[in-house]
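G., the chain you wanted modeled:
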Amino acid sequence: MDVHQLVNIFCDIDDFCNELDHHCQNYMLSGPAKSNRAPSCCVAISEIMTILVMFQMSRFRDFKNFYNGFLKFYHKDCFPKLPSYERFVHLMSRAIFPLTIFTPVYATLTPVVYPFVTLNALKGTKLLMPSQNMERPPLAGSLA
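Predicted structure as tokens:
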């Protein structure tokens, strides 16, 4: 992946996250004060999302090799505060909500930049549904 493409993806995701934070600020519930029990996160949600998008665009089959072998070695200047692999896997849950919203929005806007997002792969596929006339096995314990 080219560094310029990485910067463009990060800028798109960061702009989206800032706009999402601004939009959701009035709708979120206020919770208790922050506790000091857990260590603070040194990676922004937009960085987590960018790394997940990079993984989907790469040819790696498993995330652990991508993170430890590729990302920490070749892109440590782009992500200087990367946590350990175990900590990052724990932090990925923070990016689920924004990534769920980002994916369909950018799939319609830029299918060339984010090819993993497009739904063209599902075009022409049919879901295999059981036939309505199919005989169903009796339930366990029934008097059939």
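DSSP finds five helices and no strands in the chain.

Shout if anything looks off.
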